[in-house]
Amino acid sequence: MKKNIYYIVLCLIALGTYSCQDLDELNKNPNKGEQTHPELLLTDIQAKTFQVEGTPALYASRMIIQTGEESSYQYYKWGSGSFNNYNILRQVTKMIEEAKRLDDPNYIALGKFFRAYHFYQLSMKFGDIPYTEALQGESTALYQPKYDRQENVFEGILNELDEAEALLSPEISISGDIIYNGNHTKWKKLINSFQLKVLITLSHKTTVGSTSIADKFNQVASRALISSLEDNAQLEFQDQLGSRYGEFNSSSYGSSMYMASTYVDLLKDLQDPRLFVVAEHTASAASEGLPVNDFTAYNGGNPADNYAEVQETLVKNGNISKVNRRYYKDPTNEPHNILSYWEVEFILAEAATRGWINTNAVTHFQNAVRANLMFYQLHAERYTDYFNETEIQNYLNQPSLTLEGSVEEQLETIITQKYITGFLQTGWRIYYDYLRTGFPEFQYPQSLTPPYRFVYPNSEYNNNTINLEAALNAQFGGNDGIRQQPWWLQ
Question: Where does 80-227+455-490 sit in CATH, by number?
Answer without folding.
Answer: 1.25.40.390
